[in-house]
Amino acid sequence: MMWLLGLGLVVTLATVECLYRAALSKVPAFPPRPERISVPPLHARLRWASFEGSAPQQVEAVWPWTLVHVLADMLVFKPGHSLWMPHGYRLADEVAGEWGFQCEDAGGRRLKVFERIALAIWLTRHWSAEELLAFEAEHTDLGHRVVGMRAGAKVLLGNEWARLDAVGIALLLAVADAPGRRRDPWCFPDGIRTRRDWILKRMRETGVLSPEETDTALRTPLALALRPSEWEPCPIPGQQPSE
């Protein structure tokens, strides 16, 4: 009986790996590995914590047995509990999604669901946390053709990315997470501030910020730079913005 159970496990793991490789083979192109890793330490800590909580800043490679563990956890998932995921997978999935949009913008096709999952798994096996953070920070769309945190810090806050404090970084992350034209913090300050404050509270929960630092940050205004004059006007109040 035991050998049958063992054989069944081996077959299951082999099948999962074959499905992964089949989906990966259909990915039209792979993202280039970042050449320079220069993410400010504070940004890396905040962004990692927003995806992984207080987990160590280290990617856990996803293998067939890891996937079986995730599937088993999904079967017994209870509302109110966080679904277990290998450390770094959520960030890898974000990078895979951003790469899929870039492929589509370049005239290719959008990655299908299983292709995106397969690419995220591949990234956990081949990229470090620093590389994932660098790629995500460099390619994040902040709206109005502002791409990347370095450019976003200058346009939105009139400052250098490396000089931002937790409040400034949280604001950039809030803009990045907002949908469509709601990324514009001048047009939709309430929504951006709500999201920024949620991120700051998340930083407190994960131990990145102390309660005192969080309270001070929450009282800080958005402190935006001047809105670029070439941008299209904000929507008229009551008008539904395009997403």
TrEMBL record:
| Domain annotation Glycosyl transferase family: ranges | 116-203
Q: Which Pfam families match?
A: Transgly
SUPFAM superfamilies (UniProt xref): Lysozyme-like (SSF53955)
What InterPro entries would the database entry show? Glyco_trans_51 (IPR001264), Lysozyme-like_dom_sf (IPR023346), PBP_transglycosylase (IPR036950)
Q: Which domain of life is it from?
A: Bacteria
Q: Where are the transmembrane segments?
A: none
What is this protein's name? Transglycosylase domain-containing protein
Upper classification of the source organism reads: Bacteria, Pseudomonadati, Myxococcota, Myxococcia, Myxococcales
